[in-house]
Amino acid sequence: MAALAKKQSTETKSGVQSAKSKATQVGGDSHWTIARAELKRRPGRPTKIRPLFKAIAEKIPYAFLSKVMKDLERNNIEKTGVYIAHDSMGYPRYIGRGSIPNRLQARKKAQLLELEYFSFFVVKDKVHEREIETIMIRSAGPLLDFNYRKVRTDIQSGDVRDFEPGTLYFERQYRKGPKKQHQSRRTGRS
């Protein structure tokens, strides 16, 4: 029995490339404990792969925003990146980029009764921040309450110019051809 438990604890889930380090508690209340830990490379994983993010948080209750931000500060991690404000069901309602604490506090103030959770992603290479934000916005689409230039609720795609120069892209375009002649309603002639 102990051998089976040991075998299960050393097996990796399909696609899991990291292991969690020992967690440190950042905050807590009667419902939640907020912990911070670092992802460590599993043995045998390539060492040249660089992480995309410096720090991430997913669906943390708004009550812990200041504690999480203070912890980032203590660990010398900048507080800018891509952020998401979620409603009580966990659905994204606002996605943006910039100063994480300032923007999330502003969103909460604007939608006090609606927003319950926040997520953020501090991107290592800031050049890709806008692209990450764009992908998130387009994925969440009609759930969001803003930015209709990037959010499309119909079948039309967004503007590829939201991505960085040098990006190879494929886009659907309407087939061009000869214009159809329309008959005049009154005369029946074209």
Structure write-up:
- Helices cover 22% and strands 26% of the residues.
- It is α+β, with helices and mostly antiparallel strands and 190 residues long.
- The chain is globular, with a radius of gyration of 23 Å.
Please give a handful of descriptors for the protein shown.
190 residues, alpha+beta, 4-stranded antiparallel beta sheet, two-stranded antiparallel ribbon, 8 strands, globular, disordered N terminus
How would you sum up this structure in a few lines?
This protein is α+β, with helices and mostly antiparallel strands and 190 residues long.
- Can you count the beta strands? 8
Helix content: 10-25%
Separation of the first and last Cα atoms: 85 Å
> Which spans of ≥5 residues are poorly predicted at pLDDT below 50?
1-12
The number of helical runs is: 4
Instruction: Let me know the average pLDDT.
Output: 78
Strand ordering within the main sheet: 5-8-6-7
Strand content: 25-35%
What characteristic shape results from the CA principal axes?
globular
**Helix and strand string, N-terminal first?**
HEEEEEHEEHEH
Set down the secondary structure blueprint.
Elements (H helix, E strand, L loop, with lengths): L1 H9 L7 E3 L3 E5 L4 E4 L2 E3 L11 E9 L3 H10 L5 E8 L4 E8 H11 L4 E9 L5 H12 L50
Antiparallel strand pairs: 1-4, 2-3, 5-8, 6-7, 6-8
